[in-house]
Amino acid sequence: MATTIPGGSLTLAPDLTLSRMGFGAMQLAGPGVFGPPKDKKEAQAVLREVVEQGVTHIDTSDFYGPYTVNELIRETLYPYPANLHIVTKVGALRGPDASWIPAHSRQQLIQAVHDNLRHLGLDVLEVVNLRVGAHEEPTPGSIADKFEVLAELQQQGLIRHLGLSGVNSEQLSEAQAIAPVVTVQNLYNIARRVDEPLVKRSAREGIGYTPFFPLGGFSPLQSEVLDGVAARLGLTSQTVALAWLLQHSPTILLIPGTSSLDHLRENLAAASVTLPAEAIAELDRIGSPATA
C-alpha cells in the first residue's frame, strides 16, 4: 500500500484528517447516477485502487443509485481501513424516473442517516453533509430546522461531524450557530468561480471546501487557455484543472469521480503536480469576468 497521501492532508478536527485528493463515488452508479454500475468488477477495482494509492477520503451518498454505490463500497472495502473516512450526504431521494427529489422533512433526514448506516455497514457516519440547494446555485432561506435534525443525530452518536452542500454564506453562519461545520460542498471549478467568496471564507475558518464537478461534471470543462497551458506543460487539461484547485486554496478537498482505472490514475496524478507561477496567473484569468 502507498505510504504517501495524494496532495497532502487536511485536518478538520482532532479525529478527522482527510487526504486533499479524495474520490467521488457518484460515477460508480449506472448512467445518470441511477442503477448499478455498468461494469461491477471495474468499479470494485477502482475502489481498491483508491485505497491502495493512499486516498483516505471517499465521498458518497445513499441516493447514488440509489443505494447501489454504498452497497458496492461496503461489499468491496469492508472491513474498512482504519484511516479511511467516508463522507456522505442526505437531503434528496431518487424517483423511479431517476429524478432528484428534495427530501428535507425530519423523518426523511432521520431515515436517510439510518439508510446510509445500514448500506455502508457502519455504526456511526464520519461526516454527513446536508444537501440543500440545487446543483447550479444555493436556494436562499433558512436551513435551521433541517440542520437541527442532523445535530440531534450527532448528539445521539450516529454522526461524528456535520457539513453542508449547496449553501450560501448566510446559511453556513446559521448552521454554525447550531453545531460546528467541518465541510462545505458547492459547485466550483476553474471556469465556474461564482462561489469564490465562500472558498476564501472556508480557508480563513479552517473549513474543508469540496468542489463538486471539479472537472465540469456532465458538461466537461472546455477552455482554450486551459488546453494551451496543459499542452505546454505536457499534461492533460484535467490534470491541470485539478492541480490548480489544490493550489488555489489550502482547504480545498477534491473528489473527482470516475468508474475507470485509467481516469482514476490520471486524476490522482494531479496531486503531485506543482504548477509554475506563470501558469497559475494565466489560469486565474479563465474564471475572471473578462473570460467567464
From the 3D coordinates, which CATH architecture would you assign? Alpha-Beta Barrel
CATH topology assignment: TIM Barrel
Low-confidence stretches: none
How many strand segments?
11
- Proportion in β-strands: 15-25%
Number of helices: 10
What series of H and E elements makes up the topology?
Answer: EEEHEHEEEHEHEHEHEHHHH
**CATH class identity:** Alpha Beta
User: What does the main sheet amount to?
Assistant: 7 strands, parallel
CATH superfamily: NADP-dependent oxidoreductase domain
Kindly provide the radius of gyration, computed on alpha-carbon positions and rounded to a whole number of angstroms.
18 Å
Broad structural category: alpha/beta
Overall tally of structural domains: 1
Overall 3D form: globular
